[in-house]
Amino acid sequence: MEKTAKPIQARSQKTKEKLLTAAITMYAKNGYHSTTVDEIAAEAGVSTGIAYRYFRNKKDLLLSALEFASKSVRDIVSLDSIDSMDDNTDFRKYIDTVLRSFEDIHDRFHDIHEELEGLQHTDEDVRKFYAKVSRDMMENVIDKLSHFLPDHANIREKAYLAVSLLEQYCHLKMNSYQINLDFSVLREKTIDTVMMVLNGH
Amino acid sequence: MEKTAKPIQARSQKTKEKLLTAAITMYAKNGYHSTTVDEIAAEAGVSTGIAYRYFRNKKDLLLSALEFASKSVRDIVSLDSIDSMDDNTDFRKYIDTVLRSFEDIHDRFHDIHEELEGLQHTDEDVRKFYAKVSRDMMENVIDKLSHFLPDHANIREKAYLAVSLLEQYCHLKMNSYQINLDFSVLREKTIDTVMMVLNGH
Amino acid sequence: MEKTAKPIQARSQKTKEKLLTAAITMYAKNGYHSTTVDEIAAEAGVSTGIAYRYFRNKKDLLLSALEFASKSVRDIVSLDSIDSMDDNTDFRKYIDTVLRSFEDIHDRFHDIHEELEGLQHTDEDVRKFYAKVSRDMMENVIDKLSHFLPDHANIREKAYLAVSLLEQYCHLKMNSYQINLDFSVLREKTIDTVMMVLNGH
Amino acid sequence: MEKTAKPIQARSQKTKEKLLTAAITMYAKNGYHSTTVDEIAAEAGVSTGIAYRYFRNKKDLLLSALEFASKSVRDIVSLDSIDSMDDNTDFRKYIDTVLRSFEDIHDRFHDIHEELEGLQHTDEDVRKFYAKVSRDMMENVIDKLSHFLPDHANIREKAYLAVSLLEQYCHLKMNSYQINLDFSVLREKTIDTVMMVLNGH
DNA sequence: TATGAATGAGAGTTCATTCAT
DNA sequence: CATGAATGAACTCTCATTCAT
Fold this sequence. Notes:
Distance between the termini of chain A: 58 Å
Oligomer: homotetramer
Largest interface: C-D, 42 and 43 residues
């Protein structure tokens, strides 16, 4: 019987989005656990109470914010650049483009992504959400790869390995403020390796 | 001027370790943020107050527990199995052994490791601790690899890539309860890839 | 960056004052150290949490309560009776009126005044507050005396001595439940002495 | 049936006194409420537990410490200097000597005296103790004065007024770090006033 | 819809007191 | 007698959630 209002009016919709955006901002800045609903409301420029009109509770707000963020990610990246490539595109260039997309996402959503990754180990629902998004993304990639790769044997395993490498490269790049690495070299090597993995050779 | 007791009696040392172990257990089970000091004390079979004799506050207990856990990791693995190999050992076998060590660690410390990874994004001190442990481990591995690899060019970048792959494999394995992957295949491919990365070819 | 709410709604202002009044009541009854914030909230008929909306912490509540009480003292006494006297008023009558004001204050604020006096020896901020209020009051009195006294030599020393006598008389009166003294005599003698001190003879 | 050990052995007596001295030291430094039993034991160089062999509880320790301190006061001052004066001594010199004794006591026991004064408003037993000591002291003074003063009318009231003045002078001197007063003048005026009070003129 | 004041359960922390050694 | 580890009640403070306006 509990209900959260479905915003019909435009103003209402605005308030909800302001809350979601504020939530993401604050989670990214201070982490979920250190962020209070009061702070989110303040950041959104609305009152505390109103948050509970749109979100059942604090966790619902979190989940909604994650959903919202992941939508943004999809909107922004959406693999346009990738989709635009046709079958004749050079394969290396393809990987390079994909990697650039990954880097872009990490640049934009670094903090919230990290926080999210941390949260999944604490909360079952977050874990499920995260797993679902990851899976969707991966299936999407795998699907795309099918067109490029002649050898479909163990394509899923190869794809996971490949994407892991891309992910890991981005991760290192974002968190390496104390590590002495030559990232131009690492980037090249990453792409090389991805290609080897995918070409099965 | 604040002080945490240095255990004088043997009983005292026992209590401290019971608390550390209990802390790790609880963090692994419910995560740091959902674990109260009361719960840790209960798990350790001691009273609440005593925890504050040995740890300045909740976070100090966390940091101490991490230190304690990382010591355990080093004690358990300590790369004995790796050290015992001489130069004649087959390289592939070497990688396989290393990977098995990684898997072993992940098996034992999966939950706390995940939690730790999550916490670094929230707390500066945890981040520093994690970075330090990671770096130490990596430098150790790089050092070991030097003996095996003829080509030292970009050895750091190669090493990071290689270890990332091993890490990622373990990660996938531990978190794949909803993903349909053939892990024996993935494992072989991971090792293959690591070898390619390290051999520079 | 910490903030205590500035009352926006009228209700809010009421609550804040209820807390201050309750605080003074409880401090007077049981002393600061034996009074919990819970008790103050209960006495005020509000919840615990709200106290922390208006006061940063327990001590801030204390300081605010002292400020509030001292304001009350000023409001109540404010030396109206004294101000109303003109230069022709008999000097002895003047002293008598001042003393009655002192007695009045002590009657009303005996307990909290005692408690306050005790607290200054424990807490630096309270000490400063107390010193400031005392100084202000004394400067006020000295200023008033200037009009009456022809001889301004050592007027500050005389004033302090005089006020000390008045204070001490009140103090004895309030705390003499076990001492056998004739207070009508003591009162007369106190006034006599004050006059002698001030008249420099 | 509760009992605190009556120290028979010399060592025992030493421990008890060390605790009492430490208690006074700590109360004077940080005030009673901010002083823990642990700290007192540490200051005394003994263990926490032992304190409860000699004192029923924390308050008993306080009361015992006050008793101990007041004994010290009596021992130190004991009015030797005063007793040594014979009837021919100049009266002004007598008052001066008494005041010097008061100043001496205040110098030595300033902090604990202040703390004690504060505590009486919180605790009934402390109040009683303080009242008793004050009364004893005062009766002693009154007794002494009888020899000097020809006019015994209202001698008690005069004595209280006189001693109040002396007390107040010391108090001002000790707490005047922010007040601009000429204490040599104030001292003379205090003695003058005391004499006037006592001589009834 | 929206505000922001109010609630109250629950967490972290302290410390007087007890107890095993 | 003495030690210092251990207990646990009590207190301060926070914040998700509700409610009066």
